Amino acid sequence: MALSVRMGLFAGVTLAVLLWLLPAAVDRSLNTLEIQSLQAVSARASRLQSELFVVDLHSDLLLWSRDPLRRATRGHGDLPRLIEGPVGLQVFAATTKSPWGQNFERNRSDSFDMITPLTVAQGWPPRTWWSLRARALHIADRLTNASSGAAGRLLPVRDREDLAALVRDVRAGREVVGGLLAAEGMHPLEGELTNVDVLFEAGYRMLAPTHFFDNEVAGSAHGVEQGGLTPLGARAIDRMQALGMVVDVAHASPATVRDILARTQDPVVVSHVGVQGTCPGPRNLSDDQIEAIAAVGGVVGISFFAGAVCDISPDGIARAIRYVADRVGVEHVGIGSDWDGATRVVVDPPKLVYLTDALLRAGFNEVEIVAIMGGNALRVFQQVLP
Question: What phi and psi, each to the nearest 5 degrees, are found at residue 379?
Fold first, then answer.
């Protein structure tokens, strides 16, 4: 074999190995579990945890190359760990674009996209390398394929009937998790209103207008202009309501939040967020925003990472939940972990019982904890889904 051919083969094999190893290394470095010394769980919390129907409003599990059906040694979640939680309904987010050097203050929409090299390195279909819509559809296919191979333990939720069946199964003691698809930003619309219907047909039931940058639909809390809904965005919100899709205002600019709340007849969610009352910063909701979201029957999903709660211990998360409950009522707060969203957390699915115990210490009774850990989010989905 000629030297040039051998060198070419060696270079090809080396590149293939690097591409195989790189996504796992990135995943392992970005999605970390901080080990803290946690106090022993009370018997009351253990009993209550086994009775909860937990709804987590945000996980990026399907972005990563690991098999969602097998217990992994990296990251935060997979089906075995969700069942261990137990989590009854997991919202799986599609993150299709994220700017290089992303930050909470200001990101340009034309910045280099960090998701593009990840799609290439993970061996996603070539169409996903250039199309944000194709990336969203590929993530939807990942949930469909995982559900097909899960032997009935992972059930896609697309309508109220699916949701009711899931709740019955969980209440009956079956080891099953529901999966509901969400898009983190409407940039997969690629400027076309008809793509709202395309995403709906693919199984998406929750859309956020923006992520870390302004797009054709709306301004982001972390964008350059930080404006409100565009004419396309207003039509997209109307179409979502007509179809039965939940509006998520996470990452939306204050102007976008105001525009959506003035336009929607349905309750909205903030899938993964913190509040400025316990953790100041541009990522988190002001008191006025909390009150406006509650006024339309919405739910604020408190997240588990430092940018949201500052203190990522179970008691730190419970403190933010208590703040929202005291401000607008316990019926307007839930959880949105942001597991596997390039986050460092203490509470992963098997440690949710520690959060339940922290909520007891924060003075919530068992009925209130049932609402916080899933009941409030269930109410929104039962009202809005088709």
Answer: -60, -45
Listed in order, strand segments (DSSP E) in 152-219 are: 154-156, 177-184, 204-208
Report residues of the chain scoring pLDDT below 70. 1-21
Reported as type and span, the H/E element at residue 12 is helix 3-30
Return d(Cα 172, Cα 158) in angstroms, integer: 21
Amino acid at 125: P
Quick: pLDDT tens for 289-323.
999 999 999 999 999 999 999 999 999 999 999 99
Distance CA 254, CA 75 (A): 32
Q: What is the dihedral sign for C-alpha 101, 104, 108, 113?
A: positive
> Alpha-carbon distance 109 to 184, whole Å?
15
The H or E element containing residue 57 is strand 55-59
User: Does the predicted model carry a pTM greater than 0.85?
Assistant: yes
- CB of 302 closer than 8 Å to CB of 336: yes
Identify the domain containing residue 72 by its residue range.
Answer: 31-384
pLDDT value for 214: 93
Is 109 within a domain?
yes
Task: Tokens for 215, please give them.
Answer: 């797009």
Number of structural domains, the chain? 1
CATH number at residue 189: 3.20.20.140
Q: Is residue 23 part of a domain?
A: no
In a domain, 139, yes or no: yes
Residue 26: inside a domain: no
